[in-house]
Amino acid sequence: MENNIGKKSGFKEFLIRKKIVFSAKTYFIEAMSAMANGLFASLLIGTIISTLGQRLGIQLLIDIGNFAKGVAGPAMAVSIAYALQAPPLVLFSMVAVGSAANSLGGAGGPLAVFFIAIIATELGKMVSKETKVDILVTPLVSICGGVLLSMGCAPAIGKAASAIGELIMWATELHPLMMGILVAVIVGMVLTLPISSAAICAALSLTGLAGGAAVAGCSAQMIGFAFMSYKENKIGGLVSQGLGTSMLQMGNIVRNPKIWIPPTLTAAITGPIATCIFKLRMDGEAIASGMGTCGLVGQIGVYSGWVNAMAEGTRTSITLADWGGLIAISFILPAVLATSFCAILKSIGWIKEGDLKLEDL
User: Fold this and answer.
1) What is the pLDDT of residues 126-159, one digit of tens each?
2) 338 and 191 in a common domain
């Protein structure tokens, strides 16, 4: 009995020494958020640059954008390893692991990278600096473990993610009203929670009409909170929430969950308006579906989808109605609706002065 207790204690100390923490917070909040940053710094920014190059007719920008998009897998894996506090040799080894997982995972590559990079990173951390030939052992274990996992699991993970994403997109096309509400509300709430909605949308390859609903839901949260809290947070809060993230309100939501009602109700309204009336589609990179108005990435994603459709011949032009729908769904309706709902809740005492105040502003 004492030996068993000693072994458990020793293993626990080993994990602490290696900075390995088996928790949902570590993997599904910290690692996933880091993965979204990796996606942003490669696939998303590359798409923006290449789209700009296409519109301006500058081949150099197109080439730069394509190079950035080409390293999405390694960027995601390295970002995950960085979030997990991987030592240098493990961190650098994730370049190969991310490339393998993303390539073999197909359309669902980001989800494959997420799971495989976590496992490969933790394996690498376990053997790191445990031998006198660390420079050989650590990258060998990290790369071989990660690539073998990619070969064995990435295709199945990718297919599963793609199947779920396709199911959501198919259901949205079939039932745009109900799915417009569900997708907008769920993705919007995930955006405000300390979870990466961008990473989830990328993992599920969520585009099309469902992507448009996701953009609507995220915009409702960001612009909604930005405008309804303007009295407390002024221009700083307007910019940090409207172009940054509604996650800033998470502390206030914990203190008074009722402040989450106005932007969530707004998403429930703008989502189906996006899918049923404006037929808003986000056919750019899937990560943009979960970004909302953060750096205007969601809107740029919609625009890049229009540009791609014109290049493919499935769209002849970008009309004023297209722009009007995008602006209304992304900015005008969220600002008006969330502010109105907030005023109603203030009148009945559910929201009080100061409930929306951001501490750092």
Assistant:
1) 999 999 999 999 999 999 999 999 999 999 999 9
2) yes
